[in-house]
Automatic annotation (TrEMBL):
Organism: Fusarium proliferatum (strain ET1) (Orchid endophyte fungus)
Protein name: ABM domain-containing protein
Listed Gene3D superfamilies: 3.30.70.100
């Protein structure tokens, strides 16, 4: 089982603080996320675009995103209460509007494939699903099929605080390709079809794997 953790930190909109964060975060993150038991990979990046698909509106965001992949949920839980992560939270606190609330998802696939290592990653989340609503998976497959058989895709189900949610990721080579595919009527229809299952948000991310 793979656990994917997605975090959109809510940062204070203070330019001086954001400039300070740009120099503080890389060092603090490297110290915190290096050699963590069960942490398979860690990505940091920026939000290019954020949309509330259900309401056809743009989403506010702070521009920063973190994606972490774990081997199992117990590894994440152990890290969450560790002294190392507590120290990281203390470093980040002056920059934050509110505490971090991660989205957690599980999948039987070994990892997110090449979606997170693509030049751009489209992250689509469906929330407030019915407890047994597995049909969202069929709608997700319809979407990836409309995009193309060569689409790099991955999907997973919410766990713990994210129970009742579903997410999918698609890897893209360029923003131009993403835009041209997304503007196809059949793709737009398939994306909107996800809204029949729950509240849908979609993000375009530019991720960089951290060593």
């Amino acid at each position: 089982m793979t656990i994917t953790e997605v975090i959109f930190p809510k940062l204070k909109p203070d330019q001086a603080l954001l400039k300070q964060l740009a120099t503080t975060l890389p060092t603090a993150a490297k110290t915190t996320f290096s050699g963590v038991p069960g942490l398979s990979s860690y990505y940091r990046g920026k939000v290019i675009e954020a949309q509330n698909v259900s309401q056809a509106a743009k989403l506010d965001h702070s521009g920063l995103v973190l994606v972490l992949e774990w081997d199992k949920i117990s590894s994440f839980n152990s890290f969450w209460v560790s002294e190392g992560f507590e120290a990281f939270r203390s470093v980040m606190k002056p920059f934050m509007l509110s505490p971090v609330s991660p989205d957690l998802f599980y999948s039987n696939l070994p990892d997110s494939g090449s979606t997170t290592t693509s030049n751009y990653t489209q992250y689509i989340k469906v929330e407030n699903l019915g407890s047994e609503d597995k049909s969202v998976e069929n709608s997700w497959r319809d979407l990836t099929r409309e995009i193309g058989l060569d689409a790099k895709s991955f999907h997973a189900w919410g766990i713990q605080e994210s129970d009742g949610a579903f997410m999918g990721m698609i890897g893209w080579s360029s923003l131009e390709t993403l835009k041209s595919k997304s503007e196809k009527e059949s793709v737009m229809k398939a994306l909107h079809q996800l809204t029949k299952h729950g509240d849908v948000t979609a993000f375009v991310l530019e991720l960089s794997r951290q060593s």
